Amino acid sequence: MTGSLQNSQVAKIIGITQRQVIAWTEKGLVTPAIEASGAGTKREYNYKNLLEFGLTKKLLLLGLGIQTVKNIVTTLRANGSMHSWVEDFEFHHNKIQSERREYWTRSIGDLKKSNPDMSDELAQKLGEFWEGFINYPHG
Fold first, then answer.
1. Average of pLDDT values for 64-83?
2. Could you tell me which residues come within 8 angstroms of residue 60 by beta carbon, excluding any fewer than 6 positions away?
3. pTM value > 0.90
4. Cα→Cα distances 95→3, 24, 47, 55, 106, Å
């Protein structure tokens, strides 16, 4: 997953409402990668923000108060732990994507060998399907 995410995408990935995305941002629990700069602009979020939202959700579900959660997330952000976690996540995510890609490339090749009547077009469509699956952010 690359690029930035909007409120609706964050809400779907984390399993919260768009209103929670907005509220948690406004309360300082999450600092967007790009803050809205005026009327008609939108906040944009990144990997680090997804981690912040996920951690916030978990801590609130554990019964911690907003201020306590804010203190925890702010401290992790300030001491660099959040950044380290994101780097570790991105490294492992990219490694898993690469391993999945290699596995499905081999599998489609094996499928084509065992089914000689299979068209190149079908093999290509299967490859495109799995490429889309590999690149979809899994939870």
1. 85
2. 66, 69
3. no
4. 18, 31, 16, 23, 17
